Amino acid sequence: MERIIVTVDADLEDLIPGFLENRYRDIRALKEKLEYNDYQSIAITGHSMKGFGAGYGFDEISKIGAELEQAAKQGQSLEVAKKITEFEDYMGKIEIRFE
C-alpha cells in the first residue's frame, strides 16, 4: 500500500493521537450526515477541516475540507461522497514523522 509521509512538528506529538481519532470520528459522522442529505452539517465539518488541518501539518486535510465544504454548499451528493472517500483513503495511508 502506498504510504503518505506527513511531517509534523515534534511539539505536537502528544496531541496527534487524539487529533487522528477525531478525524476518524469525522469520517463516520460525515458518512451518516450524507445518508440524511445533511449538507449544512457536512459543509460545517468541511470548513472546520479546512481550518485545522494545516495547523497540525496535514495540508491535505485542509484541501479536502475546502473541497468538501464547496460540494456540500452546492448539494452535490456524488462529489461529497467522493471527498469523504478521498478523506478516508488519505487517513488510511498516512505515516507520521515528527521533526
TrEMBL record:
**Segments crossing the lipid bilayer:** none
Signal peptide feature range: none
The UniProt entry, under SUPFAM superfamilies, shows:
Histidine-containing phosphotransfer domain, HPT domain
Among Pfam families, the record links this protein to: Hpt
What are the UniProt keywords, alphabetically? Phosphoprotein, Transferase
What Gene3D superfamilies does its record include? Answer: HPT domain
Q: What InterPro entries does UniProt report for this protein, alphabetically?
A: HPT_dom_sf, Sig_transdc_His_kin_Hpt_dom
Residues of the HPt domain: 8-99
| The protein's name in its UniProt record | Phosphotransferase
Q: Which organism is it from?
A: Desulfuribacillus alkaliarsenatis
